[in-house]
Design goal:
- By secondary structure, the protein is an alpha+beta fold.
- It has a single domain (about 1-150, about 165-175), classed as Transcriptional Co-activator pc4, Chain A, CATH 2.30.31.
- The chain is about 30% helix and about 45% strand.
- The strands form two sheets. Strands 1, 2, 3, 4, 5 and 6 form a six-stranded antiparallel beta sheet that branches. Strands 7-8-9-10 form a four-stranded antiparallel beta sheet.
- A hairpin with a 2-residue loop joins strand 3 (about 15-25) and strand 4 (about 30).
- Helix 1 runs antiparallel to helix 2.
Length: about 180
């Protein structure tokens, strides 16, 4: 599998790393995972991990939720829920953001009975939003458009409206 891995974000005993899976081998053949971001959360103490795949709409929602918390419009966000089915069993994974103290943001990854919390400072959260909107989002939208063009699914609209306001707007409103 070909992956584009980005900077990992760490707290004391946990972290998460964004990845874009470009090509995946399934059932002996290669398939593209176009238009998806995989967030891999890991716990260093328990040696466990949770993987969550997000499409471009969910990536935009995650970036907006982080911005809302940074602007102090919200203290906790609605979870982004991702359901998968493997061998007939459904599994639900969620990402929730929580401002538990000034200057600190918890990114909570949950799957079934396991949970991994990664604490980010406001500066790390801004860096993550910047990564999402300037690197990840344009890449997955481009991959999605290429996939649609290859499959010939109707009329292709290549102009995508930017769902993100500028990061500078957030930085100006932060107290530090």
């Amino acid at each position: 599998m070909e992956r584009k891995r980005f900077q990992a974000f760490y707290s004391k005993n946990a972290g998460f790393q964004p990845e874009i899976a470009v090509v995946v081998k399934r059932n002996g053949r290669y398939e593209t995972m176009s238009g998806r971001l995989m967030l891999r959360a890991f716990s260093l103490s328990e040696r466990s991990q949770i993987r969550i795949m997000l499409d471009f709409v969910e990536v935009a929602a995650l970036a907006r939720q982080i911005k809302a918390i940074l602007k102090q419009e919200r203290k906790k966000t609605t979870p982004i829920i991702h359901t998968t089915e493997k061998n007939g069993e459904k599994s639900k994974a969620t990402i929730t953001l929580d401002r538990f103290q000034p200057g600190k943001l918890a990114v909570v990854f949950q799957r079934d009975n396991s949970q991994i919390n990664v604490v980010l400072s406001d500066r790390e959260a801004i860096a993550f939003v910047d990564l999402l909107q300037n690197v990840v989002f344009p890449f997955i939208v481009e991959e999605k458009v290429e996939k649609i063009e290859e499959e010939g699914e109707g009329e292709v609209k290549t102009e995508v409206e930017d769902p993100f306001p500028e990061v500078e707007e957030i930085e100006e409103e932060l107290p530090w």
